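Bumping with the actual sequence this time:
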Amino acid sequence: MFELANEDRKIAYFSMEIALESDIPTYSGGLGVLAGDTLRSAADLEIPLVAITLCYDKGYFFQEVIQGRQIEREIQWEFSSEFEKLPNIVELRIQDKKFKIGGWLYKVKGETGFEIPVILLDSNIEGNEHWQKNFTHILYDATPFQRVVQEMILGQGGIRMLEELGFSGIETYHMNEGHAAFGVFELLTKFNGNLEEVKKRCI
């Protein structure tokens, strides 16, 4: 069985960066490479997993070292040629204003043909104000406010998007480092404040 229905996925894997392919700039270094390898191994082992990350339209910077100095160059890429746009939308609120989060789909295929769906969350969608569209602009934005909102999108927005897409069978929420910590608050709401239930499900 190469494909599973969304409701049959049991593990949700959250990571701020994932190296899906070497030429797709959704990662910056070791954390993303490890996340990508984890997903490829999960696909090879046919583990019923779905992954959540962000869709950065500027990716991370391209690094050059010239005469011992690091030069950072902006990346331009067209991710719509790599990902499938999803019609689903969820809403979040920041500074007492709502904004929308859309999604893109990428599939990591294992050696048996089994696929791991990767949902990439995107705030650069119609209906958002300009400053809201920029939330998912750059991986690891240096502005503290932007970074906090990105982590909110990953955790809280990620869980809402999973529910919107019908991933109703998730039993374990794997948060790769602390970037998805806002998801804990969303789960507390989902499980009616039952902290022990949330602790049991999060790793």
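The tokens above came from a reply further down the thread. The first strand starts at residue 11 and ends at 14.
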